[in-house]
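Page header: ASSEMBLY MODEL / two components / 220 residues total.
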Amino acid sequence: GAGVSQSPSNKVTEKGKDVELRCDPISGHTALYWYRQSLGQGLEFLIYFQGNSAPDKSGLPSDRFSAERTGGSVSTLTIQRTQQEDSAVYLCASVAVGEQFFGPGTRLTVL
Amino acid sequence: EDQVTQSPEALRLQEGESSSLNCSYTVSGLRGLFWYRQDPGKGPEFLFTLYSAGEEKEKERLKATLTKKESFLHITAPKPEDSATYLCAVRDSWGKFQFGAGTQVVVTP
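Prediction written out in full:
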C-alpha cells in the first residue's frame, strides 16, 4: 500500500467493553510503533515491535492493554474492559531507515 | 530517562515573519532527532531526521539544525499553510521514540 492504514477511523464504545484497533504498516518495514495522543497532548509511547524480537511493552499503561503483530506485518492493539480515560487517538507508525511514517489514527471514545 | 522539551507551546506569526522553534533533549545514545508536522485530525507527517551535531536540513521554508543538547526548526517567511503543530522526537539506542508536547504555530495573513 501507499502508506500506513488504521481501522476503524472512529470507535465509540461503552465502558467495560473490549476493543481492537488495527494497523497495516508499509510493506517491508520491520519496525512498528503504537502511540496514544490525548486531546492537545503530545504522543505517548505504548509498544514497539522490531522484526522478530520480543516487543518493548514498557509504555503500556496497564495490563488491560495488549498488542500483537502477526507475520511481521499487521498489528492489533487490544484494550480490555475499556475505561473513560482510555479515550484518545491511537496512532500507529512504521519505520524505515531514518523515517517514521504514521497512520491517520483511530479515535476511541469510551462512554 | 529520555526527555524532550519543546518551546514555545504556541506561536502566532504574521505571514512573512520568520521565527524558530526549540526542542531540547536528553537521551541515552541518540539515534536520530525527528521533526514532524501535525494537522488537526491527522497523524504526524515526517519532515526531517538529524543524526549528529552540526547537521542541517532544509525543506521549502523549513530548516532544522542540531546541537548536542537541542534542535531548532526555523520557519522562514511563513505562509498561512505552515500553520500546524510541530513535533520533535528523539530515538534512543534501544529504538524507542520519545516525543515532545509540540509547538502549535498559527500564521495569519
